[in-house]
Amino acid sequence: MYKYETETLGTSQESQAWSAKKSIEGHMDLTKKHVVEARQVAVKAHGTQDYDGVFPYEKHLDDVVEVLKRFSIVHPKYLCAGYLHDVIEDGAISYNKIKRHFGIEVAEMVYCVTDELGRNRAEKKAKTLPKTASNQDAVIIKLADRIANIEHGGKIDMYAKEYDAFRSALYQVPTCKIAEPLWNHLESLLQIETA
């Protein structure tokens, strides 16, 4: 049982009941095999796309998943979504294909972090952040994505300027138990002082 599942669900019996309920609702019980397959699908989907003009895109995907693992967010649904988080946005794989192969939870996380169309970055983010905020799990993926980008060494000034709007849109008390360390690390990276 994963650390945060233990904290949330308590007993093994509650965990089994939760798992059975999710299966009935059409959610998938994801395994390490699904995580490996999500990485394979994402790497194939991004093809020859590069990251930062130098690296193959899979470096960014691996970085996002490593951020999740570093913060003990290791449930396969998060790791799958971490690998797949940009595949809809980059037009390679549809929501329905993700749903069919990785379940509705992963598909929803990926959909909710996928940028909406807009004339510029500000307009895209204004349309996208409310969608991301509607899914607590997607917020975690978005935080890991942003941390990975900053730790890679890029976009710090841009992200610092956007931080207040970003936090205002996405910070939610129910996700704090899992997301709070990610928020704290992001603020540290951006040298944001909080009250």
Would you kindly provide a written description of the structure presented here, covering whatever features stand out?
There is one protein chain. This protein is mainly alpha-helical and 195 residues long. The protein has one domain: Hypothetical protein af1432, CATH 1.10.3210. It is built from eleven helices and two strands, in the order αααββαααααααα. The protein has a two-stranded antiparallel ribbon. The chain starts with a helix and ends in a 5-residue tail after the last helix. The N terminus is likely disordered.
Map the helices and strands.
Elements: H1 3-9, H2 12-24, H3 32-46, E1 50-51, E2 55-56, H4 58-70, H5 76-84, H6 95-102, H7 104-113, H8 121-133, H9 136-152, H10 156-170, H11 176-190
Antiparallel strand pairs: 1-2
Total number of distinct structural domains: 1
How much helical structure, as a percent, in the residues?
55-70%
Structural class: mainly alpha
N-to-C series of helices and strands: HHHEEHHHHHHHH
Reported CATH architecture: Orthogonal Bundle
Taken from the alpha-carbon principal axes, the silhouette is: globular
- The first-to-last residue Cα distance is 35 Å
CATH superfamily: Hypothetical protein af1432
Tally of individual helices: 11
Beta-strand segment tally:
2
Beta-strand proportion? under 5%
CATH class bucket:
Mainly Alpha
Main sheet summary: 2 strands, antiparallel
Unreliable stretches (pLDDT < 50, length at least 5) are 1-25
* Residue-averaged pLDDT: 86
What's the gyration radius in Å? Answer: 16 Å
- Give the neighbour order of strands across the main sheet: 1-2
* CATH fold name: Hypothetical protein af1432
